[in-house]
Write a structure and sequence with these properties.
The complex is a heterodimer of chains A (207) and B (280).
Chain A lengths: L3 H19 L3 H39 L5 H21 L4 H33 L5 H16 L2 H6 L3 H36 L12
Chain B lengths: L6 H6 L3 H17 L10 H12 L5 E7 L5 H17 L3 E6 L5 H13 L10 E6 L3 H10 L1 H4 L13 H4 L9 E6 L4 H11 L3 E5 L4 H9 L5 E4 H12 L4 H32 L6
Parallel strand pairs in B: 1-2, 1-4, 2-3, 4-5, 5-6
Helix pairs in contact in B: 2-12, 3-11, 4-5, 4-11, 6-9, 11-12
Classes of the chains: A mainly alpha (207), B alpha/beta (280).
């Protein structure tokens, strides 16, 4: 019963949503699928609380045992619950809450993200070597797009802009579409396997 | 005694600290002394502009405002440009977020910045919804029942009493769906565009723009504003230069640096292969 009930629930929930798309039956089209989707939003909210709880457990243990980088665990817990408390107490539109958000989170997060630029340029310099014709094709295309997307490249050679656009619209889009269709077919197949109870990995059982 | 590395070796192995210092200088200089290089308008940005321009004045607009603190510098300029474009037409905007918890704060911030200029009234012409967990399922749920998913707005006000929300019966009431995020439009294409036939325009970070091009060329989205370049192009189309135009010079110089470094590395690579030692 520990396996059969979750499989039955998966089947009923999954089948209702799928039937809601294909059948013009009010029960499936409106009632069942709408209700189930609203429930899913509520269940997902619990997952956030579960994540916060798990993070707390890991870092409280680490701090208590003076584990690796334990002072960071304390900083994390203070920030997590301090900011949560501030939000609950003063509300998200409060000026102090907003000040912390705009003054700490935004510049900190943006800084980490902007480091990508430094690493990408450094990595391009070290790896874009014309070792064979395939590498030459890749590097040549990359340079055309890199220059064609900015003013300096377009000022040097006005045709670079349209060339970059063409590369993005045709060869790039064609390749991406192939990857996406492949991924979509895989998703449909996995979805069907879960609905039909063939795939049981999410229940902690071998399929 | 160890011999000094030869030129081809040094060309291939420039110290990372020097590269990072050059990047920093080439970002800062154009920001301090802008060059003002014009950018050509790409097909995706022009299509996005035309799609928004085509909606009737006063239309309802649904905006998946999935901005976060990391991608805010890259996405905010285009979002500001969109706000200007929509507010010029007095469109009524409903902003929501499914993937980014902090997005409502950014939406409200942008609204407060631009809305004042157009005397926009919150609740009548703009409303920002709170974050909802659930990812793709939540997007599907909004499609089926937007009022059920958002009984209150970001500030806790009841949405059923808001004049703007009273105009909305379902997703088909919206003239267009906008999406601002650091990932592709796939989820919204699957759950909103395909199901309800609502036209969509996307704004995404540079790293995901190539993937999003597939949806544009297939006609599943009507326009694509890719990263800061797209934002600068959009500002040009609006004839309202903003922060993106200023930042594009810095992008120009760093892109040029990338190309020069790649060329230097390859010169060193070939010189080392043809040299007397046969390379290192």
């Amino acid at each position: 019963m520990r396996k059969e009930i979750p499989i039955a629930v998966s089947f009923l929930a999954g089948a209702s949503i799928v039937l809601g798309f294909f059948l013009n039956v009010p029960f499936f089209k409106v009632t069942a699928s709408r209700q189930l989707l609203n429930w899913a939003v509520i269940v997902a909210a619990f997952a956030l609380a579960l994540g916060a709880g798990n993070l707390t457990r890991i870092h409280v243990t680490n701090a208590a045992k003076r584990g690796k980088h334990w002072p960071y665990s304390i900083i994390l817990l203070v920030c997590l619950y301090g900011y949560l408390g501030l939000g609950l107490w003063r509300g998200a539109s409060d000026s102090i809450y907003q000040w912390w958000f705009n003054g700490a989170l935004v510049p900190g997060n943006s800084t980490v993200f902007s480091l990508n630029g430094f690493f990408i340029i450094s990595a391009a310099y070290r790896t874009w070597r014309l070792r064979n014709w395939r590498a030459a094709l890749l590097v040549g295309t990359a340079i055309l797009v890199v220059l064609g997307r900015v003013g300096i490249g377009q000022a040097m050679w006005p045709a670079l802009g349209p060339i970059s656009d063409w590369i993005m619209t045709y060869p790039n889009a064609a390749g991406m579409r192939g990857i996406m269709i492949g991924a979509a077919l895989g998703t449909i197949s996995l979805g069907l396997r879960i609905i039909l109870g063939i795939e049981r990995g999410h229940l902690g059982v071998e399929s | 005694m160890e011999s000094k590395p030869d030129l081809p070796y040094r060309l291939q192995n420039i110290d990372t600290r020097i590269i990072h210092a050059l990047i920093l200088i080439l970002i800062l200089l154009p920001l301090l002394r802008p060059i003002g290089l014009p950018v050509q308008i790409s097909a995706g940005t022009r299509a996005a502009y035309n799609a928004i321009e085509a909606i009737p004045a006063g239309s309802l607009v649904l905006w998946a405002y999935e901005m976060n603190a990391a991608n805010e510098p890259e996405l905010m300029p285009a979002a500001i440009a969109w706000f200007h474009h929509l507010m010029r037409k007095r469109c009524k905007i409903v902003a929501f977020s499914i993937y980014s918890e902090e997005a409502p704060i950014f939406a409200q911030k942008a609204f407060e910045t631009v809305g004042k200029e157009y005397n926009y009234v919150y609740g009548e012409e703009f409303v920002v919804m709170p974050f909802r967990a659930g990812m793709e399922t939540a997007v599907a749920a909004i499609g089926r029942d937007i009022h059920g998913v958002f009984p209150t707005d970001f500030f806790g006000n009841r949405t059923d009493t808001m004049p703007l929300m009273q105009e909305i019966k379902g997703l088909s009431d919206f003239a267009i769906l906008l999406k601002t995020s650091g990932w592709g439009p796939d989820v919204f294409v699957r759950q909103m565009v395909t199901v309800y036939g609502i036209p969509m325009v996307a704004n995404c970070t540079g790293i995901v723009a190539p993937g999003a091009m597939a949806y544009l060329s297939a006609g599943q989205i009507q326009g694509l504003v890719g990263a800061l370049t797209g934002a600068a192009e959009y500002e040009q189309l609006l004839r309202r230069p903003g922060t993106a135009a200023a930042m594009m010079d810095a992008q120009s110089t760093t892109h040029m640096l990338t190309v020069i470094l790649v060329l230097l590395g390859n010169v060193g690579f070939y010189a080392s292969r043809r040299g007397p030692k046969g390379g290192r």
